[in-house]
Amino acid sequence: MQSYAQTVYIKTNIGQIAIHTNNQKSEKLPIILLHGVYFDHHLWDKQVSEIKDRTVITLDMPLHGESREITKSNWTLNDCADMLIEILDSLKIPKVVAIGHSWGSMTILRAANKHPERFEGVGLCNMPFLAASNKQKATFGLQHFMLIFRSFYTKQTGKFLFGKTSLKNNPSLQIQLKRTMDILSRKELIKVDETVIINAKDVTDLIINLKVKAIALIGKEDYVKIPPVIKTIVVEGGHVSPLENPSEVLKMIERLIS
């Protein structure tokens, strides 16, 4: 896995967040990458290893990876957006290029709407932006009962997140998911699902009113829809494009910063 030059912990409104920085001596704007639910900063290892002309920052989202000291129990997606700005302030970064996956994209969208001056551009991978339907909410409720069968739950989650061809060609994707999901307790998994998926509101208006340069990317087998207005790239795979199609995600990042 990619080794990072520096790891620090930054206090935010949600709790202590682990920040991993690959420092480069460059005048170019840094890039910050935010992962989605069940993963950690290693989701971006391939992309980070290829970006050598500027500083690259990744972080572990609340309760994930090394961000285990979460002090706010009722945090929301808006708190995550504030958390991102607090991190930029702490690192003394006035402006950044931000790339997100799923939950990370949802966080960036909200932060960029509140503080457009802090973002040169945003890349939104696999971003859910519609509210969950009643059927989806009921499905998650039933799935949470299955958490007592943890290995089965994780395997079924992988089948939902990854495209069929991706899993067939790269079975190690399930192993990577298991590594990061195993860190989360049953209570933490339910909290994340409720906050990020079940209770998330429709943010179509935030997309339409976004005043920052943006590119979106989704997989052909993704469960999310193509967002309105934003130029969207459709690639092979399901909902975890940074792992399933890392080269295409890297091209998207390069396009955004060119």
What can you tell me about this protein's structure?
The chain has an eight-stranded mixed sheet with strand order 1-2-4-3-5-6-7-8, with helices on both faces. It has eleven helices and eight strands. The protein is globular and about 50 Å long. It is an alpha/beta fold. The chain has helices spanning 45-50, 77-90, 103-114, 134-145, 150-161, 164-169, 172-181, 186-198, 204-208, 241-244, 246-257; strands at residues 6-11, 16-22, 31-34, 56-59, 96-101, 119-125, 214-219, 231-235. It has one domain: 3-Layer(aba) Sandwich (Rossmann fold), CATH 3.40.50. Strand 1 and strand 2 form a beta hairpin. Helix 2 (77-90) packs across helix 3, helix 4 (134-145) runs antiparallel to helix 8 and helix 5 packs across helix 7 (172-181). The two termini are 27 Å apart.
Question: Any chance you could write out the topology, listing elements then pairs?
Answer:
Layout: E1 6-11, E2 16-22, E3 31-34, H1 45-50, E4 56-59, H2 77-90, E5 96-101, H3 103-114, E6 119-125, H4 134-145, H5 150-161, H6 164-169, H7 172-181, H8 186-198, H9 204-208, E7 214-219, E8 231-235, H10 241-244, H11 246-257
Parallel strand pairs: 3-4, 3-5, 5-6, 6-7, 7-8
Antiparallel strand pairs: 1-2, 2-4
Helix pairs in contact: 2-3, 4-8, 5-7
